[in-house]
Design a protein that fits this description.
The complex is a heterotrimer. By secondary structure, chain A is of the alpha+beta class. Chain A contains 8 helices and 16 strands. In chain A, the strands form 6 sheets. A 5-stranded mixed sheet of chain A has the order 2-1-5-3-4, with helices on both faces. Chain A has a 3-stranded antiparallel sheet with strand order 10-11-12. Chain A has a two-stranded antiparallel ribbon with strand order 6-9. The radius of gyration of chain A is 27 Å and the shape is elongated. By secondary structure, chain B is α/β, with parallel strands linked by helices. In chain B, 45% of the residues lie in helices and 14% in strands. The longest helix of chain B has 24 residues. In chain C, the strands form 6 sheets. A 6-stranded mixed beta barrel of chain C has the order 14-18-15-17-16-21. Chain C is built from 19 helices and 21 strands. Chain C starts with a helix and ends with a strand. By secondary structure, chain C is of the alpha/beta class. Chain C is globular and about 65 Å long. Classes of the chains: A alpha+beta, B alpha/beta, C alpha/beta. Chains in contact: A-B, A-C. Chains A and C meet through helix 4, strand 10, strand 11, helix 6 and strand 13 of A and helix 3, helix 11, helix 13, strand 7 and strand 8 of C.
């Protein structure tokens, strides 16, 4: 164990603990942009810098191991000045259109500018010119808002393993790019949207969710994806009784299977729920046509026809196809309907298909 | 030559650097022979005792650096930094051209000390003929068995200044983008391919054979006690003798300029000297009576760095020069960390404004704020040093700036 | 799965993937397998007629001919036995029938396998060694193994291989079928099968029947029922008169669509309960609007047997109702009063009748779900099955012999058609075809053809072609790719307008599981 002092408090942490974690244990709220506990450390945004007594430079706390006897200041004048200047530098390359930005209210850059009172940038000059028009239907790449945290690059490699994007150019001209700078469609991208999940600003957003409600306006309901059998946890975003988006749940305790990772269907394939083609009314075939009827009529008709056939041909002439798409409870009732109500074991579903 | 003390360059132009036999004739590979008879720990002790400090610019104690290599690691590497990207610096090229075998011997001594079987020389992309020279030199040394089973491979950079930073250099050898890694872990623990690695400068390696042969005490007694030995300096700018010299480290900067350098061109007055390449501080005339060793330079807010000495006469426009330096760093920033990527870019914008006569007093204020943060918060030495020439030019020549403001 | 998804990411040293295109059909599991390779150096063996993405990072790739799984697996066991790479202690203590297995696989030499499977003998030997020498080796498979007329035998062969090397009942090992639908595991667990009640309690065992009769208060039929494919066949014959279909689209998902259509048309009464007017619903006499997953509470059970909570986020659309409520209404109106106030109340009944679910409650799975078996409420669930013993006690080797597929290529139909899914669409496309973004990205069906096969027919990438089998033909675009072996063509069944199941064979069922042979039909192609 290692003892150190952070903002005047004594903290004891295991050897190998990074300062960031030690500072958080000490109750300090350290801002981070490039840090993600699931990804390889980058140590590049420098927002998490702290002052360590006796050191010439400020230490990026996410990549600095805690050492015995360290004396650390997390909000000293130097630290605050550095964070403010970094935010100003980022603002100078970030198109500020919070009023129409999907990430308004859910943006790290906005949060930290608010926290440090950074209203404008002293370093404004050339405007950002990094926007990438990418005609894919899932992911918008507005690199005029990119703050170069590279979490998208790391998530693409380290969670999905698609290696679709990486850095191009050097210095200020660095930009996230696919090989040969084409669209995502022509890259190895599988549109899992892990990049959207980790983007701390509005540079990468879901085109499917655009304009349908900001994060803070929506209610979140944690549930399970309705596609394959992996059973990924996700969060439905709800506004005015409509599903308007999907969020990742990255906490392993709540999302043990996928820890937030999703695939194209899970992240971008929820809109069928709101489809105009959804059935909203029971239908009964009359004179060869399916026509809308009341529930009572549909249910009574169904029950009486089933009873009739059972009486005439026996329960063995009837069958229930239950569903690998519905819940356990519904499957249970479906087989109960077949077995206890109709009286047949002719019940099956598409497990084999 | 008057005032020089040549150790590494003693036989310059008298031997063929590609031929190991030539080198052996003048006493070469004796140091390695001696090292091979010593216990590895004793070699490291000897190097420590000599107080040899890194000649690449950071001035870290070489023996100390080697002692961080975990003994029990299965694979270790020796890497020579021949990226030599600092404008005005060409001493490593000179060492290769004049005494390449000493570099190879130095690397082999290091390998013997730390237990490495493989070495890499990372050569600056603009030196293709040096790659050829080194490959011939390695071949020759291998042929006569001087290196025994120690293999050296020459890798070529692609012209990125940042690859002179040891971790970016390692990334580049590995085939990645040339971007620095955060430290710790230091290369001594986790370097090339994740293995413990010693990265030293060409000049550092080239000192080693002489230390081994003549003893640590001999070396420690030359020049400044805290930074002993000789240093190869390269002179550029408004100087009568723009060439290279090997001098003991207690040599005065003023003597470098007026004795070895033969004074300022056309009999003009000195305005400023920049030592250590583009990332070095500007030194005004009043401070030049200082020894060139690492610690003395630090005391006057400068840095010996790579040993480049860039001389400016009184007619030079320092704001224009600082603007050009800002442009250089804007171009060379790798783009990894925020302070450097955006800082070098905005620094150049502000400097350009001032240089064009469009600057405002707050531009100078903003440059100084940015400069402070870049030095404190950048990830690697590039971003930390990039603002130093700008900051020191403002500090010492503020009136030149004020004169250009709008 | 006998093991957990996490094992594939953090435990397994070797993963043998056979008949699973994991990155497309179980993408998140695919990521985990890939990360295991990238970060932990796990080695993959990929056996698939298509060069799936994971083949690119595999140590060994075996592009074997469809339908020859047993030969390949038996040959691997042949090598393992011959080279004494088996786990003697495991075989001794945990299994029976080893001698029979040994006798059976003896003739399946790698050389013989090479001739039948079309992969080099030495690759089979390498695969056998890699799998057998690993401390922790997992097998994953999916429909590529099961959707054959001998799917059950294929699974036996896989189980034999795992037991032979002791790769079962420990972390990072196991026999791991990756289940294709969100709640296919749950539908099986809940007794949505003709032969079992919940938790695989056999209907033909009197004790079970009595238990359910008591709970449900009615007499129950003692003999097992018909499977889905049998029901369709019986409907064609006129022996099945009424079907109640919930959330299924057999018109697209079942083999030989014309045959299914004939069956449905032949019924006296068809009820379809769904969220869309599917190809099947269009045939119905009554269509009952159900609720999507976002509109109701309940539980799904995933492929690793984890029972997880599904939560209502929005109200059912229009006058639609949650499916459980509809079922209660139908039952009640048929004279069997069925009333529950909530899905949780139904779940309580389920766990009272199902030992493997007995310890799972809504409260316990509020956060993260529990893997069954979970016999009591203090039990933490079971991430790994068969740790100490198998369900039947000793694990039994079921030696299996190779038989040719029901339909082999011939002069008229010289190619093999195999079917499956793609990353972007899902099953019959009922949902994904109605997601604008996805349908925009992948609007058409395609058929994958090897360049050399394509050349024979003068077909170029992007040409429209006619793909036919004895059942019928569809028109679709050709995708010429090296990712598929010569003589084999692949297409998906997501698209109603070019429905693969117009082509597949409904007559060749696995004799035990009654699973159709989707992965193999004799076919021909022509340019149009």
């Amino acid at each position: 164990m290692i003892n150190l002092t952070i903002d005047g408090k004594n903290v004891t942490v295991p050897r190998g603990t990074m300062l960031l974690e030690a500072c958080r244990l000490a109750g300090a709220d350290i801002p981070t942009l490039c840090y993600d506990p699931e990804l390889k450390l980058a140590g590049s945004c420098r927002m998490c810098v702290v002052e360590v007594e006796g050191r010439r430079t400020l230490a990026a706390s996410c990549v600095t191991p805690a050492e015995e006897g360290m004396v650390v200041q997390t909000e000293s004048e130097e630290v605050v000045e550095a964070r403010k200047v970094i935010l100003e530098l980022l603002l100078a390359r970030h198109r500020l259109d919070c009023h129409v930005c999907e990430k308004d209210g859910n943006c790290r850059l906005q949060d930290y500018c608010y926290r440090y009172g950074v209203k404008d940038s002293r370093f404004k000059g050339e405007e950002p010119h990094f926007y990438k028009d990418d005609p894919n239907p899932f992911i918008e790449r507005d690199y005029d808002k990119c703050i170069m945290c590279t979490k998208c690059v790391r998530a693409c490699a380290e969670i999905t393993g698609a290696f679709a994007i990486n850095l191009k150019n050097r210095g200020h001209e660095v930009v996230i790019s696919t090989a040969f700078d084409g669209g995502l469609k022509d890259s190895t991208c599988v549109f899992c949207g892990q990049c959207v999940m980790v983007c701390p600003v509005g540079a990468l957003v879901s085109k499917v969710e655009k304009g349908r409600g900001r994060d803070y306006q929506t209610e979140k309901v944690r549930t399970i994806c309705s596609y394959c059998g992996t059973g990924c946890t996700l969060e439905l975003k709800v506004l005015n009784d409509q599903v308007v988006g999907v969020n990742s749940v990255r906490d392993e305790r709540l999302s043990p299977v996928n820890r937030g990772a999703l695939c194209v269907k899970g992240r971008f394939g929820w809109d069928f729920v709101n489809s105009k083609e959804r059935l909203t009314q029971p239908l009964v075939r009359k004179d060869g046509e399916l026509v809308p009827v009341s529930w009572d009529e549909a249910l009574d008709y169904t029950a009486s026809r089933l009873k009739e056939i059972k009486e005439r041909w026996g329960a063995g002439s009837m069958a229930v196809f239950t569903s690998a798409r519905t819940t356990n409870e519904e499957n249970y009732l479906a087989q109960k309907l077949a077995r206890a109500v109709i009286g047949t074991n002719n019940v099956d579903h598409c497990a084999r298909l | 030559m008057k005032g020089e003390k040549r150790i590494i360059l003693e036989y310059a132009d008298k031997i063929n650097p590609e031929k190991a036999e030539d080198y052996i004739k003048v006493g070469g590979y004796k140091g390695l022979e001696k090292a091979r008879r010593m216990k590895p720990k004793k070699i490291i002790e000897e190097v420590k005792k000599s107080n040899l400090r890194g000649r690449g610019g950071a001035g870290f104690n070489t023996g100390m650096k080697w002692s961080f290599i975990p003994e029990n690691a299965p694979i270790k590497y020796v890497v020579c930094n021949l990226d030599e990207g600092e404008p005005g610096t060409y001493k490593d090229r000179i060492i290769c051209e004049k005494n390449a075998q000493a570099l190879l011997e130095g690397m082999a001594i290091c390998a013997t000390a730390i237990g490495a079987e493989k070495g890499y020389i990372y050569c600056r992309g603009e030196y293709p003929y040096i790659v050829k020279l080194l490959n011939n030199a390695i071949k020759s040394a291998k042929e006569i068995g001087a290196l025994e089973d120690f293999d050296i491979e020459v890798r070529m950079g692609a012209g990125a200044y940042v690859c002179g930073e040891e971790t970016a250099l390692i990334e580049s050898i590995e085939g990645q983008r040339g971007e620095p890694r955060f430290k710790p872990p230091f290369p001594g623990v986790e370097g090339l391919w994740g293995m413990p690695t010693v990265v030293n400068n060409v000049e550092t390696f080239a000192c080693l054979p002489y230390i081994l042969v003549n003893g640590a005490e001999w070396f420690a007694s030359i020049g400044a006690p805290n930074y002993p030995g000789t240093k190869i300096l390269t002179l550029t700018g408004d100087i009568n003798n723009p060439t290279y010299f090997e001098v003991p480290t207690d040599y005065l900067l003023s003597d470098v300029i007026y004795e070895l350098g033969g004074g300022i061109k056309s009999g003009r007055e000195l305005k400023a000297v920049q030592v250590g390449g583009s990332s070095g501080a500007f030194i005004p005339k009043k401070n030049i009576d200082t020894p060139i060793d690492f610690d003395s330079m630090t005391k006057i807010g400068a840095s010996l760095g790579s040993g480049a000495v860039f001389v400016l006469d009184e007619t030079r426009d320092i704001v224009d020069i600082a603007t050009r330096i800002a442009k250089f760093f804007k171009h060379e920033s790798c783009g990894k960390c925020n302070p450097c990527r955006e800082g070098t870019f905005r620094m150049y914008e502000m400097m350009t404004r001032i240089n064009k006569g469009l600057g405002k007093p707050e531009d100078i204020e903003n440059i100084l704020v940015l400069s402070r943060v870049m030095q404190k918060a950048s990830l690697c030495g590039l971003g930390q040093a990039a603002p130093i020439p700008i900051e020191t030019s403002i500090k010492h020549f503020k009136s030149d700036y004020m004169a250009k403001l709008n | 799965m006998t093991n957990s998804i996490k094992d594939l990411e953090e435990e397994a040293e070797v993963i043998f993937l056979i008949g699973t295109n994991t990155t497309e059909n179980h993408p998140v599991i695919g990521y985990k397998i890939r990360q295991n390779v990238l970060k932990r150096g796990a080695k993959l063996i990929v056996a698939d007629p298509r060069r799936i993405e994971l083949a690119d990072i595999a140590e060994i790739y075996l592009p074997f001919k469809p339908g020859t799984d047993i030969v390949l697996l038996n040959a691997m066991m042949n090598v393992i036995i011959k080279e004494d790479l088996l786990d003697e202690e495991f075989i001794e203590k945990r299994t029976e029938g080893f001698e029979e297995l040994k006798a059976t696989v003896k003739k399946y030499t790698p050389e013989m396998a090479e001739a039948i499977c079309g992969v080099p003998a030495e690759e089979i030997v390498k695969a056998a060694r890699l799998y057998a020498k690993a401390d922790k080796a997992a097998i994953c498979y999916s429909m590529g193994v099961t959707q054959h007329s001998k799917g059950t035998d294929n699974v036996f062969a896989i189980a034999n291989l795992a037991m032979l090397t002791g790769n079962i009942g420990k972390p990072g090992s196991g026999v791991n079928p990756l289940r294709g639908q969100n709640n296919v595991q749950g539908a099986c667990d809940m007794g949505g099968l003709p032969d079992v009640y919940t938790g695989y309690q056999k209907v033909e065992v009197e004790e079970n029947r009595i238990k359910f009769e008591k709970a449900w208060g009615v007499k129950l039929p003692p003999e097992k029922g018909l499977t889905l494919t049998e029901i369709i066949n019986e409907a064609v014959k006129g022996n099945i008169k009424a079907i109640y279909i919930i959330g299924e689209n057999p018109m697209l998902s079942d083999p030989d669509s014309r045959h299914v259509e004939e069956a449905l048309d032949n019924l006296e009464f068809l009820v379809v309960q769904d969220i869309f007017l599917t190809e099947t619903a269009l045939k119905a006499d009554v269509v009952l609007p159900g609720a999507s997953f976002a509109e109701k509470d309940g539980t799904f059970t995933n492929t690793e047997r984890r029972v997880q909570r599904v939560r209502k986020a929005i109200k059912p659309r229009g006058n639609a109702k949650p499916d459980w409520q509809i079922l209660c209404e139908v039952a009640s109106r048929m004279g069997y009063p069925m009333r529950y106030d909530s899905p949780e109340e139904i779940f309580e009944e389920i766990r009272s009748l199902t030992p493997s679910y007995a310890g799972i409650t809504y409260e316990r799975i509020e956060k993260s779900g529990i893997q069954w078996p979970c016999p009591h409420t203090n039990h933490l669930g079971t991430p790994i099955l068969h740790k100490e013993t198998f369900t039947r006690g000793l694990g039994k080797f079921h030696p299996v012999e190779y038989r040719e597929a029901a339909e082999m290529p011939d002069e008229e139909y010289p190619l093999i058609l195999t079917t499956g899914r793609s990353l972007y669409h899902y099953h019959t496309g009922t949902m994904t075809r109605r997601v604008a973004a996805i349908d925009q990205h992948r609007p058409h069906n395609e058929v994958e053809i090897n360049p050399r096969t394509a050349e024979t027919y003068n077909i170029k990438d992007g040409d429209m072609i006619k793909l036919s089998t004895r059942r019928g033909s569809i028109k679709l675009k050709a995708k010429v790719t090296e990712n598929i072996k010569e003589g084999i063509v692949f297409t998906t069944f997501h698209f109603g307008e070019a429905a693969a199941n117009h082509l597949t064979n409904a007559n060749s069922l696995d004799p035990v599981a009654k699973i159709p042979e989707f992965k193999l039909a004799a076919a021909k192609i022509e340019k149009i």
